[in-house]
Design goal:
43% helix, 11 strands, 14 helices, alpha+beta
């Protein structure tokens, strides 16, 4: 523990951040009185929902290695070793799970790590995800390169070549240390946690001051105790909600109406949902808030989610994978890219109309479109056509435009 704290102080000395130190020790205090770290933040439903939709969306996207052709197009590099590594990074993890887990860490901590194991020829043969707390990153003040150390369960640190660490990180202000979204938004998350706990306690008790019992005269200690026990046993708790209330000795019950404070409480809970969703730029309809979602704007909101939420993560992934899995010479002609067609895909009618336009203008040929729809091609379907007479396009057919 002391070794980890020492390395943490070395890394954070310039920043002088007390909040970062508290975060390393397990949490950061907030004005709401709740200490927020990643584990406690994930217990807030909106935080868990936002991180989950980002991580699972990135994890489900197919990612492939491509080769640039001499004509300026591209083709799948299906026989390249990197293609197999993207599908099965190691013997016990598939590619989708690795990307999902690492994207969850990226969205929560602002960074994610994997160890790139290389063969005798220096080529990567497997990728193994590393827990965030098992890696420390320092910045070489002379070369500005990152220096990585692996930390074992006993706190010992051993240096690792930066070429063996896949480091996917988001924006940051100091060296190679990113901003951590949960720590930066801890006040909003703490308030949401307080509201959640208050609501749970309020309804869990059941026998809340929803009204007033009016008793003529004064009750002694024994009748008060008997009334209290009767109310607690028969009417308190969620299981007793709605039961008929039996009163005696002239006791009457006067219910309370919904107060302005109760209304503000509901508004505050919804505002905190919006506030936290704003941190990760997740549309509210993906978090279950459909109040302003209609059939007309659902598609545009989905496109906005792809453009402004997912694409920044995908660009970070692509840059890190290209840098780590290809040699400098290979990067001139090979690259890795996510396929977002499934997320951007419209309904069947709109999609077929777009395909028809693309075929008639020579952008795709019929077999390429059939491949996009997971259907086999047919003989003659590789012909590109042009507008007006829809005749063959000489010199372009059988080539990748």
């Amino acid at each position: 523990m002391f070794e980890r704290l020492r390395s943490f102080f070395v890394e954070k000395k310039a920043a002088g951040s007390i909040d970062s130190l508290l975060s390393a020790l397990g949490g950061s205090p907030t004005s709401s009185g709740i200490s927020i770290n990643v584990d406690s933040a994930l217990r807030v439903p909106v935080v868990f929902g936002a991180l989950r939709v980002i991580a699972e969306s990135v994890g489900q996207l197919p990612v492939h290695a491509y080769h640039r052709t001499a004509a300026g197009g591209r083709e799948r590099a299906s026989d390249h070793r990197v293609e197999a590594l993207l599908t099965t990074p190691n013997d016990w993890t598939d590619g989708a799970l690795l990307r999902t887990d690492m994207t969850l860490s990226l969205a929560a901590y602002g960074e994610a790590f994997a160890f790139v194991n290389r063969g005798a020829d220096g080529c990567p043969v497997e990728m193994i995800r590393l827990d965030h707390g098992s890696v420390s990153v320092e910045t070489d003040r002379l070369t500005m390169e990152p220096a990585y150390h692996l930390i074992d369960a006993n706190g010992s640190r051993r240096p690792v070549d930066r070429r063996d660490i896949l480091h996917v990180r988001s924006m940051g202000l100091r060296g190679h240390t990113p901003l951590r979204p949960i720590m930066e938004a801890r006040e909003a998350i703490g308030l949401a946690a307080v509201l959640e706990a208050y609501a749970a306690g309020l309804f869990g008790r059941g026998c809340r001051p929803a009204g007033v019992l009016k008793i003529p005269g004064k009750l002694g200690d024994a009748p008060q105790q008997r009334l209290r026990v009767s109310l607690t046993q028969n009417y308190a708790g969620a299981g007793n909600a709605g039961k008929l209330l039996l009163l005696e000795d002239g006791v009457t019950f006067e219910p309370h109406q919904l107060t302005s404070a109760d209304s503000q409480f509901l508004e505050m809970r919804r505002f905190q949902l919006q506030e936290i969703a704003r941190v990760w730029r997740v549309p509210l309809h993906l978090l279950g808030d459909l109040e302003r979602t209609t059939h007309n704007n659902a598609e545009s909101m989905g496109q906005a989610f792809l453009t402004f939420t997912l694409l920044p993560y995908l660009k970070l992934w692509q840059g890190a994978l290209n840098r780590m899995l290809f040699t400098p010479e290979e990067r001139r002609s090979y690259y890795i890219e996510f396929n977002v067609d499934d997320l951007a895909r419209a309904d069947l009618g709109v999609r077929m109309q777009a395909y028809a336009t693309a075929i008639s203008h020579g952008i795709y040929n019929p077999n390429e479109v059939r491949g996009m729809e997971n259907r086999d091609g047919y003989q003659g379907g590789e012909v590109y056509t042009r507008p007006l007479n829809a005749g063959p396009m000489e010199g372009i057919n059988h080539a990748n435009p």
